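Try this one yourself first.
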């Protein structure tokens, strides 16, 4: 049997989540097909066909699919179930909406948020907000899975020795009770939250929507994405599509800076797989200090401009003498990409703890 991946794209390129899903699908050890739906997707399909590891590209091109709805896509995908033992989607908003409908039409249960593939019918997935990991065995003839992209590595976008075959589906557009009315998009030059290497998140302690400008400024200096806790979203400080947590987006960046976030269990479920977690909080007993690998304590002093150079000052507290590991991570990231920043560590005398202030400055162009 074969595996079918339902692709997500922006009309020009496949999304990073789809490439991660492809990496997960390869662990099943089966031939892989990819379904791309949309309008005017011929160029995108030809590009996808050059990715190594894909045997065949299925396309469904229709003007009504420019804005895809799960009510339209699910019947067509379910009709393909006899050809596939596994149907995989990224555990994104799109995948979480589509997978249950496909599974219901196939007469099987959907298995969500897979974080490890043990065998073609055995998987691991988090339960109880990530506090326990369940090992699940699924013997359905067609298994519908959503892949938690933070738990798998992205497939290397290497060119195939020979391009995959592109096959256009000839199907009628199913009747859908849903009608597209309007789409409002917010544009940003920052990285996407679910694929960013550095994320700066703010919590309710930021105090107001106006004060959230500090988070935006810091993110811009570091080339980072912006996130938030549910408390900040509910308070109206930031849009809900930037929420990190169990009911928001699950992320696993190289560096996660949590500013004014105490660390409720629902928030930790969405970011505890980050490589390095830095908490900026005045409460020394905040739960977030005890979930990460670094367990550092910092307090943001200021972020702004002075003498034509930008700076971010931190006061750093360390129980384990970690020697500014998170600053080293930021430095390696920025130095590798722009080499336009330098760092000025300064030791400050303290009582019982090591205190340092670090200034991150942009070099004059």
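Now uncover the answer:
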């Amino acid at each position: 049997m074969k595996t079918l991946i339902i692709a997500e794209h922006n009309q020009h390129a496949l999304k990073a989540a789809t490439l991660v899903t492809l990496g997960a699908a390869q662990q099943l050890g089966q031939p892989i097909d990819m379904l791309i739906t949309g309008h005017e997707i011929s160029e995108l399909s030809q590009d996808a066909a050059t990715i190594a590891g894909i045997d065949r590209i299925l396309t469904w091109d229709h003007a009504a699919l420019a804005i895809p709805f799960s009510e339209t896509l699910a019947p067509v995908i379910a009709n393909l179930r006899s050809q596939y033992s596994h149907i995989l989607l990224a555990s994104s908003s799109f995948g979480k909406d589509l997978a249950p409908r496909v599974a219901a039409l196939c007469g099987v249960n959907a298995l969500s948020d897979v974080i490890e593939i043990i065998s073609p019918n055995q998987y691991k997935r988090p339960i109880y907000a990530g506090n326990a990991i369940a090992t699940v065995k699924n013997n359905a003839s067609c298994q519908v899975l959503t892949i938690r992209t933070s738990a798998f590595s992205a497939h290397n976008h290497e060119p195939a020795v020979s391009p995959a075959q592109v096959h256009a589906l000839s199907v009628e557009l199913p009747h859908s009770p849903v009608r597209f009315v309007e789409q409002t998009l917010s544009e940003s030059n920052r990285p996407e939250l679910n694929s960013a290497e550095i994320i700066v998140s703010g919590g309710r302690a930021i105090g107001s929507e106006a004060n959230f400008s500090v988070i935006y400024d810091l993110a811009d200096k570091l080339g980072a994405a912006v996130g938030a806790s549910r408390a900040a979203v509910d308070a109206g400080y930031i849009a809900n599509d930037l929420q990190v947590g169990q009911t928001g987006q699950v992320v696993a960046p190289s560096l996660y800076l949590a500013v004014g976030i105490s660390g409720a269990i629902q928030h930790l479920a969405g970011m505890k797989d980050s490589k390095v977690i830095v908490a900026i909080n005045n409460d020394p007993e905040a739960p977030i200090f005890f979930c990460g690998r670094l367990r550092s304590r910092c307090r943001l002093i200021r972020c702004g401009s002075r003498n034509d150079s930008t700076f971010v000052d931190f006061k750093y507290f360390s129980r384990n003498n970690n020697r500014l590991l998170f600053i080293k991570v930021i430095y390696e990231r920025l130095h590798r990409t722009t080499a336009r920043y330098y760092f000025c560590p300064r030791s400050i005398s303290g009582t019982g703890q090591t205190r340092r202030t670090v200034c991150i400055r942009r070099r004059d162009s």
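Discussion: The domain at 193-362 is CATH 3.40.50.1220 (Rossmann fold). Confidence is low (pLDDT under 50) at residues 293-365.
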